[in-house]
């Protein structure tokens, strides 16, 4: 291959990143506004160019990046970030105002700091107004036009306010029953539970799973923060239904001895009306940070 052809098209790299972040070709095509065949062709050209498969495929579905794909994914994210920063610098240098963001509390702990730093570099005159709340409340605020971008959690088919085409999946992961190492909380009957307040999708999924299995649960702890929930579990007080990414050292999964829980999805949507000009890039920054651990 001659030197002048040794380049990677940004559209190919964006397709790769979006497929990994969204979990498949179909979701990536919807996110990028392209056909699935067009996305497939971009990945084929990328793989032909690098001479290596970049995605693992199992029974026609994407099963994450290959080892070579993970290396390329890191370069792709950096190249796309620089491209998008350069574009924003010249395309909308005078953008100013306020962008109203709603998100679950745990994202403040997991990814918000790097997202905020990158957003501030891109849009130094746009201030973020952030609200952390239950997902059902964030959904209502987005629908009422009181948020420009909302990130929320849903489990299975609930809640209904988080279904529909307006919401797109950013991350999907298993939901676990967690107790403390050495604890016998999983053997309690009724099952001692640590949960968030009424309206939490994790709480609803846990109670539904117990009911369907003919088991009863007793709420021993009600909290409003991830930190408090972890402390309740680690103290041996109760079990908590949480996504795998929220487990802390000293917590263990009890899924092998309790009713199965559905997967948890992190979803996002714009508010009603015309999207805020910077909301799409903020959405992309969250997707980028969330995809780094995949």
Structure write-up:
The protein is of the alpha/beta class. It folds into 3 domains: 3-88, Winged helix-like DNA-binding domain superfamily/Winged helix DNA-binding domain (Arc Repressor Mutant, subunit A, Orthogonal Bundle), CATH 1.10.10.10; 95-163 and 274-291, 3-Layer(aba) Sandwich (D-Maltodextrin-Binding Protein, domain 2); 175-262, Periplasmic binding protein-like II (D-Maltodextrin-Binding Protein, domain 2, 3-Layer(aba) Sandwich). The chain is built from 9 helices and 12 strands. It has helices spanning 10-22, 25-32, 36-50, 67-91, 105-122, 135-143, 201-212, 226-234, 279-291; strands at residues 55-58, 61-65, 97-103, 126-132, 149-155, 168-173, 175-180, 191-196, 217-223, 240-243, 251-253, 264-270. It has a 5-stranded mixed β-sheet. Strands 10-7-11 form a 3-stranded antiparallel β-sheet. Strands 1-2 form a two-stranded antiparallel ribbon. β3, α5 (105-122) and β4 (126-132) form a beta-alpha-beta unit. It is globular and about 65 Å long. The protein starts with 9 loop residues before the first helix and ends with a helix.
What topology does this entry show?
Blueprint: H1 10-22, H2 25-32, H3 36-50, E1 55-58, E2 61-65, H4 67-91, E3 97-103, H5 105-122, E4 126-132, H6 135-143, E5 149-155, E6 168-173, E7 175-180, E8 191-196, H7 201-212, E9 217-223, H8 226-234, E10 240-243, E11 251-253, E12 264-270, H9 279-291
Parallel strand pairs: 3-4, 3-5, 8-9
Antiparallel strand pairs: 1-2, 5-12, 6-12, 7-10, 7-11
Helix pairs in contact: 1-2, 1-3, 1-4, 1-9, 2-3, 5-9
């Amino acid at each position: 291959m001659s030197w002048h052809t040794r380049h990677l098209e940004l559209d190919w790299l964006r397709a790769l990143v979006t497929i990994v972040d969204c979990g498949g070709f179909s979701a990536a095509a919807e996110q990028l506004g392209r056909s699935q065949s067009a996305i497939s062709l971009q990945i084929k050209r990328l793989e032909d160019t690098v001479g290596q498969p970049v995605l693992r495929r199992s029974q026609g579905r994407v099963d994450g990046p290959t080892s070579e794909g993970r290396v390329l994914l890191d370069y792709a994210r950096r190249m796309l970030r620089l491209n998008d920063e350069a574009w924003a610098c010249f395309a909308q240098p005078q953008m100013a105002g306020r962008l109203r963001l709603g998100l679950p509390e745990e994202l403040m702990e997991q990814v918000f700091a790097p997202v905020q730093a990158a957003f501030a570099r891109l849009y130094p005159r746009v201030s973020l107004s952030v609200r952390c709340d239950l997902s059902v409340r964030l959904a209502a605020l987005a629908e009422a036009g009181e948020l420009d971008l909302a990130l929320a959690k849903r489990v299975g088919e609930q809640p209904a306010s988080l279904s529909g085409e307006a919401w797109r999946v950013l991350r999907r992961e298993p939901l676990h029953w967690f107790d403390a190492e050495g604890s016998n909380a999983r053997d309690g009957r009724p099952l001692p539970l640590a949960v968030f307040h009424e309206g939490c999708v994790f709480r609803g999924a846990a109670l539904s799973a117990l009911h369907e299995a003919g088991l009863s649960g007793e709420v021993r702890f009600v909290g409003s923060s991830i930190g408090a929930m972890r402390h309740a579990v680690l103290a041996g007080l109760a079990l908590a239904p949480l996504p795998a990414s929220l487990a802390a050292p000293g917590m263990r999964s009890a899924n092998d001895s309790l009713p199965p829980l559905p997967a948890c999805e992190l979803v996002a949507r714009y508010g009603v009306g015309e999207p805020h000009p910077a909301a799409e890039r903020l959405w992309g920054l969250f997707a980028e940070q969330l995809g780094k651990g995949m």
